[in-house]
């Protein structure tokens, strides 16, 4: 794992045998804590002895927690098993959502309590409401609604993230050419940023302005990248509004800064 400053200066790296193949990352600061206590969550899609898990590390690379059964893909709930978990997101009180998986057998959304106890599991492979086909990214909006990038179904699905995953709606019209690979809200919560890998672009969509109503999927702008860079996942700085795109074709990351 390599660590860089916001301006791209290399700071340090941590070597760990406890990650087989990192996929998604998320920085989470638990309630009541400071940035010094930030947790670095990594989804591991590898097939080795540490794969098929979701892990939390501290800023120095010390392993804090593992969710899932290391090295064993599966559908189990007690103990929890994943099959290529793709991404995680956190709600306002620390509840965690996991999309499982990046391929694999499960195609589901899971919710964990703030102390990481499994609360519910939803989904299954398919294209009906509430089903998924490669749920590749997950995000929580300012209303507590859970957005799932349902990649191979070329749509985003949105759910209430409460005691049960009640379906709110979906967006499909913006994803005719390629499915959504990564979904993140801008720091000001006005926009939903969506990566389309096969089109090498980032969509900037108008975010809903009230709870329980999505409205139409409206493209505000696009960022077209060079062919074959294959943007895969993105992350947003909550302090500066900049966002970072990881590209698996070009083996690089690009930083974009909002213009005010």
Question: What features would you describe in this structure?
Answer:
- The protein is mainly β and 260 residues long.
- The protein contains no helices and 21 strands.
- The strands form 6 sheets. A 4-stranded antiparallel sheet has the order 3-4-5-6, with no helix packed on it. A 4-stranded antiparallel sheet has the order 7-8-9-10, with no helix packed on it. The protein has a 4-stranded antiparallel sheet with strand order 11-12-13-14, with no helix packed on it.
- The model has no long low-confidence stretch (mean pLDDT 95).
Quick summary:
It contains no helices and 21 strands.
> Within the largest sheet, what's the order of strands?
3-4-5-6
Would you tell me the overall average pLDDT?
Answer: 95
Structural class: mainly beta
Count the beta strands.
21
**How much of the sequence is in beta strands?**
35-45%
Using the alpha-carbon principal axes, give the shape: globular
- Cα-atom radius of gyration: 17 Å
Low-confidence stretches: none
Portion of residues in helices?
under 10%
> What letter string, H or E per element, gives the SSE order?
EEEEEEEEEEEEEEEEEEEEE
Question: What attributes characterize this protein structure?
Answer:
0% helix, mainly beta, 4-stranded antiparallel beta sheet, 260 residues, 21 strands, 43% strand, single chain
Task: Draw up the topology in text.
Elements: E1 2-4, E2 10-13, E3 22-28, E4 39-44, E5 53-57, E6 63-67, E7 85-90, E8 96-100, E9 108-112, E10 118-123, E11 135-140, E12 145-150, E13 155-160, E14 167-171, E15 182-185, E16 191-196, E17 201-206, E18 219-224, E19 231-236, E20 243-247, E21 252-256
Antiparallel strand pairs: 1-2, 3-4, 4-5, 5-6, 7-8, 8-9, 9-10, 11-12, 12-13, 13-14, 15-16, 16-17, 17-18, 19-20, 20-21
